[in-house]
């Protein structure tokens, strides 16, 4: 089959690699001049930062991608993935804080007990409720292709639950600080917890069970490795090429319309926001994209605070510090994300939290949400939660148009490396071998 993959982010790269390994003739079309999308690295003045994700949960998703499309991931990176001892540190307005370890229930109890007697047990009781949720999602949604018109009974029941994450956290925690930690991932991706289904909080369970992991040298290395894999598999890559629309005849996709003509196809994988294609826009008109945060990539010199991989400052605005970039000797690379009422320079807001690095900045790249969306040709945060029905309105892995499939953050249970990588596996399963 001749297959066009639209979008050169992780979802598109993973889909193209899997399909080419299965013997298909694959063309990947990317609007930007370079591949990677939000996963690509940002560089300035000798400093390099991760464009978006700086670590991953459920590393088996990446390992499966590389194993099923060629050499194992560890062989490609020349070593093992790096586990994060502390996934995130959370600092609250009362000056208390908690460092959340991954991969250990006992370690999380000990960490949260630092906030007060009994808080550790309260935390793990909440996390424990997500074990059956993950079992349903893994079997029926994450690892197996699903059909909105014929969902397994347990998955349909989960999706029909009226409880929001906001209500679940208020029910489970008397201490508001625990609720801030448990709801952080959804808030950081731009969602209002009152509109997020309670089952989305399964991320806390994934952190506890699987921990968080980094790619040595930064997550941007995945882009280079997958680009090399596409070349090895004979994938035709067209960068700087905008896809205008899908050509549909008699209800089936026949071609992909690009700047300079049409590419005839047997199937298409849409790994971008489907709203950008008129043929699909009407199908997802009830959904909206989740908007990225304000981002500031900082190159620092001199002595800076020794912070874990991620520090979350719970206030308005909420500021997230990520410390995983690379820097020249004597330097440090940080990335700041801002959410909320940011009416001042984000470094001034950071200084009010007693982290003042304003005099140490020698390189800086500021990006607004609008600039990020324009640069990435869409939002890597996926679909905005607008209530429990949102999950039924979005596409993936199939679409109403025969021969058109969907992968990426807009076609997965959530944004993030494991879900996006796994969305490509679902598409490959449905299309099958050549």
Automatic annotation (TrEMBL):
Domain of life: Bacteria
Residue ranges occupied by any Amine oxidase domain in the UniProt entry: 10-278
GO molecular function: oxidoreductase activity
Pfam families documented for this protein: Amino_oxidase
Record-linked InterPro entries: Amino_oxidase, FAD/NAD-bd_sf
Protein name, as recorded: NAD(P)/FAD-dependent oxidoreductase
Protein source organism: Nocardioides humilatus
């Amino acid at each position: 089959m001749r297959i066009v993959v639209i979008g050169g982010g992780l979802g598109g790269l993973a889909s193209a690699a899997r399909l080419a390994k299965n013997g298909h003739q694959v063309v990947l079309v990317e609007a930007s001049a370079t591949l990677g999308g939000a996963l690509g690295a940002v560089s300035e003045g000798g400093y390099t930062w991760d464009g978006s994700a700086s670590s991953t949960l459920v590393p088996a998703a990446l390992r499966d991608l590389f194993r099923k499309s060629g050499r194992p991931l560890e062989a490609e990176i020349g070593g093992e993935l790096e586990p994060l001892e502390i996934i995130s540190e959370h600092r609250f307005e009362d000056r208390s804080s908690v460092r959340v370890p991954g991969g250990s229930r006992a370690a999380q109890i000990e960490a949260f007990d630092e906030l007060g007697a009994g808080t550790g047990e309260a935390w793990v009781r909440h996390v424990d409720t997500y074990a059956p949720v993950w079992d349903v999602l893994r079997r029926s949604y994450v690892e197996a292709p699903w059909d909105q018109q014929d969902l397994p009974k347990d998955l349909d029941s989960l999706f029909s639950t009226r409880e929001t994450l906001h209500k679940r956290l208020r029910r489970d925690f008397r201490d508001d600080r625990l609720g801030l930690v448990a709801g952080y991932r959804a808030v950081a991706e731009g969602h209002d917890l009152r509109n997020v289904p309670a089952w989305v909080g399964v991320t806390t369970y994934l952190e506890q069970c699987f921990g968080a992991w980094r790619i040595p040298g930064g997550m941007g290395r995945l882009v280079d490795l997958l680009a090399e894999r596409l070349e090895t598999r004979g994938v035709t890559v067209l960068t700087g090429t905008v896809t205008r629309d899908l050509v549909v005849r008699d209800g089936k996709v026949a071609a992909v319309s690009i700047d300079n003509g049409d590419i005839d196809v047997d199937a298409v994988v849409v790994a971008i926001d489907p709203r950008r294609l008129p043929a699909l826009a009407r199908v997802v008109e009830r959904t909206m994209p989740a908007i990225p945060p304000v981002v500031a990539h900082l190159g620092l010199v001199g002595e800076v605070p020794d912070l874990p991989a991620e520090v979350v400052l719970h206030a308005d605005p909420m500021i997230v510090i990520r410390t995983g970039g690379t820097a020249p000797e004597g330097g440090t690379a940080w990335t700041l994300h801002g959410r909320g009422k940011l009416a001042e320079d984000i470094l001034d807001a950071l200084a009010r939290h007693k982290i003042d690095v304003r005099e140490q900045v020698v390189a800086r790249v500021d990006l607004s949400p609008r600039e990020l969306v324009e640069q990435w040709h869409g939002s890597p945060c996926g679909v905005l939660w607008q209530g429990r029905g949102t999950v039924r309105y979005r596409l993936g892995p199939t679409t109403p148009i025969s021969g058109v499939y969907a992968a990426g953050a807009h076609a997965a249970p959530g944004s993030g490396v494991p879900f996006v990588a796994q969305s490509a596996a679902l598409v490959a399963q449905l299309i099958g071998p050549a």
